[in-house]
Specification:
Layout (H helix, E strand, L loop, with lengths): L6 H40 L2 H34 L2 H35 L1 H4 L1 H30 L4 E3 L5 E3 L2 H5 L4 H34 L5 H35 L1 H8 L15 E8 L4 E8 L2 H7 L21 H30 L6 H9 L3 H17 L2 E3 L3 E2 L9 H31 L22 H8 L1
Antiparallel strand pairs: 1-2, 3-4, 5-6
């Protein structure tokens, strides 16, 4: 099956597969941890048990999501030493300490207080338990900070030198961490995590509202609150995310113009002025071999307006990039449009929810609920599409403009990489398939009064959970 693929291509496929699986879980856990902190804070402030019920409902799901994120992250670290040993050797003096800081300042905090968060409410008291929940939420965000710092340095490297043996070393750690694209990426990723969580919570709430409507049952108060909070978050965060994405795109145009050309499908440069600015290509079929966009549907000048605030601004295309340094257009072109298209739908849903709320029928708008249900997984799709856009658009470099991907891989034979790829696919779909099924099973139950409070008398038997959930509880 893999006879026509080189070891480099297979290694890239394997890393893309595992990192895609992995980031699904942090994208959910970052937002869900903050949602849990808000719910517990509202319970402490108002004394209403409905917030405690919602907290316990989503806490069970968070534990499993966190566990699956841990397991999938370990596999990624393994690949740095197996398939990408040359990259690890050359870039390790820079990215190694940053990854260590992530473990020391974030992962230990998350893991250490997760046990208190899961089982400590009846043991440590309400306020100390709330502090543990806030620390877990803070840990997830700090983790994102360090991971984004690493990835952003690979995209826009600065503050480094190269030794005689080819190894990178830091000359200015602040410049390494706060590289030019890091703030934009961090805001974009964290907002994406919050929006992803809001869409999942809203989708679960919509599912129960629709089911209660079908069987003629009054929805639980917890369901209504859950759906209302999710719609508020979608209405607020969706436009913020679109603005953050625009600013991130402007930053990318400054530091990685070739990536923008691939995302926009601009094979040719546009002179601007009387010659006209760059169009916004809504759809087309990229032809990398001929370096032309076929069957394109475009709006003249709008690309220059969006990227440079001027309809007649000039725009460089891939014809200004050396052929050996050009990214393949097809994947980032379509991935970018998937991300943007879903972002527009999220904005529409948020505005629709505000209109329904103003009319007083937020909980009696079945078509809004159907849209919210359909949009439930869209945050994950948009997040993956965004990462695919930025990572494929960076090619053919692992460290942009400095270290090529072809020079980063381990000297392995294709059959060896293919064997591990097949093993990962089989194991991942089985293990994480079971975990996902278990999460969906929990979501199928409507939150309401009587959600158990974790403690010694309600502790879940670790052996009864999927492996990834057991790991989360054992941390």
């Amino acid at each position: 099956m893999f006879d026509d693929f080189s070891a480099l291509t297979l290694a890239r496929m394997q890393f893309a597969f595992t990192v895609s699986f992995h980031f699904i879980f942090p994208a959910f856990s970052i937002g869900l941890a903050s949602f849990l902190a808000v719910l517990e804070g509202l319970w402490l402030k108002t004394g209403r048990d409905v917030y405690l019920s919602l907290f316990q409902y989503w806490l069970k799901i968070f534990a499993i999501v966190f566990g699956m994120g841990v397991v999938s992250g370990i596999v990624m670290a393994y690949q740095f030493g197996s398939n990408w040993a040359v990259f690890s050797d050359k870039a390790g003096p820079v990215i190694g300490p940053l990854m260590a800081y992530e473990v020391l300042t974030a992962f230990f905090m998350e893991s250490g207080f997760l046990g208190v968060m899961l089982f400590g409410l009846n043991r440590v008291g309400k306020r100390l338990h709330f502090a543990a929940t806030c620390l877990v939420a803070a840990g997830t965000t700090i983790s994102a900070f360090w991971i984004i710092a690493v990835n952003s340095w690979m995209q826009t490297p600065q503050g480094y030198g190269i030794a005689a043996n080819g190894q990178f070393y830091a000359t200015d750690w602040l410049a390494v961490i706060f590289n030019p694209s890091m703030p934009y990426r961090l805001v974009h990723v964290v907002l994406g995590a919050y929006l992803t969580t809001a869409l999942v919570v809203g989708g679960v709430g919509a599912w129960h509202l629709l089911r209660d409507r079908r069987i003629g049952r009054t929805p639980q108060e917890a369901t209504r609150i859950m759906f209302s909070m999710a719609m508020w978050m979608a209405a607020i965060v969706a436009p913020m995310q679109i603005l953050a994405g625009h600013e991130h795109g402007s930053n990318t145009l400054t530091y990685q113009p070739a990536k923008i050309s691939a995302m926009e499908g601009h094979y040719d440069s546009y002179p601007g002025g009387q010659g006209g600015g760059a169009p916004l290509i809504l759809f087309g079929i990229p032809d990398d071999a001929a370096q032309v966009m076929r069957h394109k549907v475009e709006i003249p000048g709008l690309g220059s307006l969006v990227l440079k605030n001027d309809l007649a601004a000039p725009m460089d295309g891939l014809d200004k990039v050396a052929p050996e340094n050009r990214a393949k257009v097809t994947i980032p072109f379509f991935a970018f449009r998937i991300m943007v298209g879903l972002g527009v739908l999220m904005l529409v849903m948020g505005l629709w929810s505000l209109w329904a709320r103003a009319r007083g029928n937020l909980f009696a708008a079945p078509w809004l609920h159907r849209m919210a249900l359909a949009m439930g997984p869209s945050g994950f799709v948009a997040v993956l599409a965004g990462w695919i856009t930025t990572e494929v658009g960076r090619q053919p470099f692992t460290i942009f403009g400095v270290l090529r991907t072809a020079d980063s891989a381990s000297p392995l034979a294709a059959p060896a990489v293919a064997a591990s790829l097949v093993a990962f696919v089989i194991v991942y779909f089985f293990v994480f398939g079971v975990g996902t099924w278990f999460i969906l099973k929990l979501m199928n139950d409507e939150p309401g009064p009587g959600e158990p409070i974790p403690g010694p008398e309600t502790a879940i038997e670790v052996g009864s959970l999927p492996p990834e959930a057991a790991i989360a509880l054992a941390e």
